[in-house]
Amino acid sequence: MGCVQSFRNFCDRPKNTNVRISLPAVCFVWQIAMIILFGVFIRYNEEADTHWVEYRKKENISSDIENDFYFRYPSFQDVHVMIFVGFGFLMTFLKRYSFGAVGFNFLIAAFGLQWALLMQGWFHSLDYTDGKIKIGIENLINADFCVAGCLIAYGAVLGKVSPVQLMVLTLFGITLFAVEEYIILNLIHARDAGGSMVIHTFGGYYGLSISWMLYRPNLEQSSNLQGSVYQSDVFAMIGTLFLWMFWPSFNSAITDHGDGQHRAAINTYLALASTVLTTVAISSLFQKHGKLDMVHIQNSTLAGGVAVGTAAEFMLMPYGSLIVGFCCGIISTLGYIYLTPFMEKYLKIQDTCGIHNLHAMPGLIGGIVGAITAAAATESVYGKEGLVNTFDFVGPFKNMVPTTQGGHQAAGLCVAICFGIGGGIMVGCILRLPIWCDPADDNCFNDEPYWELPEEEEIIPPILHYNNHMVNKDVVDTNFSMEQN
Amino acid sequence: MGCVQSFRNFCDRPKNTNVRISLPAVCFVWQIAMIILFGVFIRYNEEADTHWVEYRKKENISSDIENDFYFRYPSFQDVHVMIFVGFGFLMTFLKRYSFGAVGFNFLIAAFGLQWALLMQGWFHSLDYTDGKIKIGIENLINADFCVAGCLIAYGAVLGKVSPVQLMVLTLFGITLFAVEEYIILNLIHARDAGGSMVIHTFGGYYGLSISWMLYRPNLEQSSNLQGSVYQSDVFAMIGTLFLWMFWPSFNSAITDHGDGQHRAAINTYLALASTVLTTVAISSLFQKHGKLDMVHIQNSTLAGGVAVGTAAEFMLMPYGSLIVGFCCGIISTLGYIYLTPFMEKYLKIQDTCGIHNLHAMPGLIGGIVGAITAAAATESVYGKEGLVNTFDFVGPFKNMVPTTQGGHQAAGLCVAICFGIGGGIMVGCILRLPIWCDPADDNCFNDEPYWELPEEEEIIPPILHYNNHMVNKDVVDTNFSMEQN
Amino acid sequence: MGCVQSFRNFCDRPKNTNVRISLPAVCFVWQIAMIILFGVFIRYNEEADTHWVEYRKKENISSDIENDFYFRYPSFQDVHVMIFVGFGFLMTFLKRYSFGAVGFNFLIAAFGLQWALLMQGWFHSLDYTDGKIKIGIENLINADFCVAGCLIAYGAVLGKVSPVQLMVLTLFGITLFAVEEYIILNLIHARDAGGSMVIHTFGGYYGLSISWMLYRPNLEQSSNLQGSVYQSDVFAMIGTLFLWMFWPSFNSAITDHGDGQHRAAINTYLALASTVLTTVAISSLFQKHGKLDMVHIQNSTLAGGVAVGTAAEFMLMPYGSLIVGFCCGIISTLGYIYLTPFMEKYLKIQDTCGIHNLHAMPGLIGGIVGAITAAAATESVYGKEGLVNTFDFVGPFKNMVPTTQGGHQAAGLCVAICFGIGGGIMVGCILRLPIWCDPADDNCFNDEPYWELPEEEEIIPPILHYNNHMVNKDVVDTNFSMEQN
């Protein structure tokens, strides 16, 4: 710990937020690298290639509608909306950081998905006959998923980092994600359709560890901007609702065709509905006068979707989904009330969006629920074929049984936590270097350092409105005089 | 009527808006009840169960793509967006009730859909072999539809009730809806794909009756907050547009596979387009200087979608859809201009969102259009098989002919009106009890009683009143003097 | 040019913005005309008609899921969102023109799609056996596409025209579009899945030419309103993101079933991701202090989707898409920085939204990329059948080869430019007539002439900000004093 502290002292840096060289440099270099790597490695798979018509005949596929595109494209678009509008607008709640919330979310997601296509492609979609990665719609969904992990981490450091730091956070985050995912899904053979472990647990702890490494003892200097205004809370509800509504698509996007997607959507729909009620209940119960807190409504209502991610494709049963949502609404809201202040004060983790309550904890719960549900699976409930299909007990895993699967699920969860914390500390070290143009402690949660703001806003709205809108200045003057006399 | 008046006097209640006990209690009790009832009754249907793979073989279904999920999931998600973003944001037009509009809409929809799955399940999806309700994607859509009826009713009482009252309104609303729907669709054998009768007419009159029962003679005390501001009108347009765009999905979501869904989407698309033009025309024509009124654009443009709900799956013909939309744009806009003030003044019905013009009247028109279109159906237009499929002339109804179907449609419409008015009066009686923590007459249309507002915002209202409505001049004057001295 | 000038002088008109007669008249007359024309011409096609069940048997279609509805409906709804929310909210960036942006966009799109169904129907969907246009889901998508051309043109004249002028712009725009499209796609046999040429190039030059004809030398009188405020920029990001996310659906909506739609979606997804990074890079690099400009983020990030429109269905390869996006982000952002001011100053083209940088230039690039990609196609890459399918080398075109196809693509691009410029000048002449109730030079970019505005907003903002946001009270006080002395 002393080592960390001295490293912190070493990095006592002067604050210069001018990213005019570094940001364009990073964007250009990385985008050119992407073009070269895509040129070398990435091609269409047989369902997106013009050879599809021949492939169809060869594989005896009766209709174009059985192209995977039609199974997954609607879910893909919903996931896409969650990534860009959902995550982006959810973070607009701060009164003066809406440009950064939506804009940097946009930037790192657009970069991240390219890098994710490569990283995940090498692990999962490499065609060994020609050394090319063959991509189709499922790869796009997985790339969006991969990006989600980094956007979750962004939530912890929202308003306290520069766009260059975010690009670095994303580069490493995607890399770590792809490795962790390969270990969990392929080597350990855990199932994680909605990514409770792979996405949310990893992303949550990754972000929290980075935030811990970047701890700012004097952050209260920016406390006047670390809150919402009425309008920004309404904007944030756009993010909340699109995440909430499309979460069934998120959890069902890459599950098995047919019953797998169908069941995952139903389970998620129910878990989320249940979460809303307990979130409202706890929010009201723990507030003086019983008033609801927008922070809880914006965030905790989503916890059920996270927590049902792993088990959504299993036979969790409708009431099981409701129970998971019920518990998560309570735990997540209590987390916002008690745990977030505690972590900031005693653990020195400043978690702007409360991702611990929305992603990390519900992700953990999701991993545990998944392990239990898997371990409890029986042939009488799933059917003989259903059990094999659902848990993919084929090939080298054909001798697995539900109880061992439960153990593998738990192992997967541990891997996700380790990668999140370990990776976060490592990347946090890098991000502490005094070269990243991050804002000073008294200039956090502010769009001003990185965005050209509309003129009048920078000076004084009242005067500007006064001068601009008022064609009839005399009337106003008169009004003002009247008021004062 | 004297009895109603004396009941009103009896309920002359002190106003306490602290819901700290009642709201959590209702949420917890009802959610736990849901879990128990779901545990006892609800299971996946054969298309969402892991036995699907065996079912497929047994039923000789050639591909996973024929799982009902793929026919309906895109429409389901569109409907889901309408319920949560569409209805929620449409009601954000009030200057200080955006949290309540979006937040309470969220709460009651999330509760309502669970209760709807049970209520509708008992009537429509009960498997008599094991006494379980078997749910799939179509049940989720129907649950969302059912919720829509209650959200419509919310529009009439927006800003004047507590969240606890809304939960009660929803509990009874869903129950009444399910019974009414069963009578109309199954016993009477009326067709109502888009729910002109079942959803909009019922929901509209249900809400209006409740609003009548909850009449507030001194509501003008809150008149300073019963209007929009520039930003809130733009937020409301988000709701309008998502409702407008996705209405074709709403009306086609549960129609027959193939041509049924296809035709319903086309008809709705056209009716809505036509409505926009006549709404703009009437709005401009009846306003001094020809200026457009945002209230009309936000609401009346949607009337065509309501009015084409019943007939959307019939051979209404493209021009028929345009005519329906044409008339509804005119009627609905005139309703806002003349009928809403009339109803408030003479019928003592305070209709915050004007649901009479957007849902009740267009719903009535939709029911009538449906009856006429059904009665006018001929084998030459529909084809022999087409007629049977479209009107479902099978089983006990195989001897029905279009003219009798027209009569049944009309009967269905009457049932919807009766349930709406009767149910609304009954529930209104319950909601008048002085136990629900609703706001006082001078505190309506205000988020303050039920929401923690961002600090700084709480200072605004006096100033706001000052310049416009001049309520408490003294406070403001003092403020100004202080600033300048 | 002298003739144009004298025409301009002739049209030195008094400004009266009262549209109380003209707007309702246009709306009613045109909507009634639509009803009559639809009655005479438009019917459902065999996939939306109740005869589908018989058609299915006759054509030996094995399942309802092969109805074109299920191939295209999800994409259709995404395109629909782009048209109404995407284009509408993208234009809300102006501080006082949000009602006009969203509302007039809504109006002209709703009218335009009806007229487009007719115009495109006569060219493409006329059933010669009975003289009727048979419509299905693909016609709805094409109607939305057709409308997009006019909405692009609206961007150039945003805030400077009356709703009546917009209706005229749309009527002629749709007409020109349908003719141009028929020439390019059917006569010249160019391919243009995403409409780089047909939609964006045409729409862009159509709008620019109209704006040139309507040049306002004294527009700087409205310069105080020709900018954004913080909130309006966030609203505009809603438009940007929905356009960005759903552009893969736009470019793939009417491509071939199976691999065609699949590939077009992938290519567009990648091009757009690449564009974001170079837009950010250039925006930061060319701004003092390296701050990002919201105008660039809102607009230039979309240029990649435009530029990949034509080639999206070809074997452009993933790296090809990235390269196209890379270049367009640079060119489009530089356009905003250098070209827009240049065009306003020297070419007398006032382009409110910068459609030249977002649509016209990227559209040109898209046409060129399409021509090159087509000319470079080989049987070894596409496969024998794939080549024929992709370029539709059938019927009268069965002897075409890729190189000639490349030439035809280039010819198509020229036609689009000619129609855009020629049509724009013609329609611009009409719109210069002093009868359209457009706003005076000092009243542009203002909702006030055509919309009933919420009362208080015109007075509040100063007070509101004054009491809450102002840290530096002294400045304000001084200002206030200045005003009052």
TrEMBL record, chains A, B, C:
GO terms for biological process: ammonium homeostasis. Keywords: Ammonia transport, Cell membrane, Glycoprotein, Membrane, Transmembrane, Transmembrane helix, Transport. SUPFAM superfamilies: Ammonium transporter. Its main location: membrane. It is a multi-pass membrane protein. Residues 67-435 form the Ammonium transporter AmtB-like domain. It is found in: Cell membrane. One of its GO terms (molecular function) is ammonium channel activity. The keyword Transmembrane applies. GO terms for cellular component: plasma membrane. It comes from the Eukaryota. The chain crosses the membrane at residues 21-42, 97-118, 164-185, 197-215, 235-254, 266-286, 319-339, 360-378, 410-431. InterPro entries: Ammonium/urea_transptr, NH4_transpt_AmtB-like_dom, RhesusRHD. Pfam families: Ammonium_transp (PF00909). Belongs to the ammonium transporter (TC 2.A.49) family. Rh subfamily. Functions as an ammonia transporter. May play a role in the elimination of ammonia in the gill. This is Rh family, C glycoprotein b. It comes from Tetraodon nigroviridis. The lineage of its organism: Eukaryota, Metazoa, Chordata, Craniata, Vertebrata.
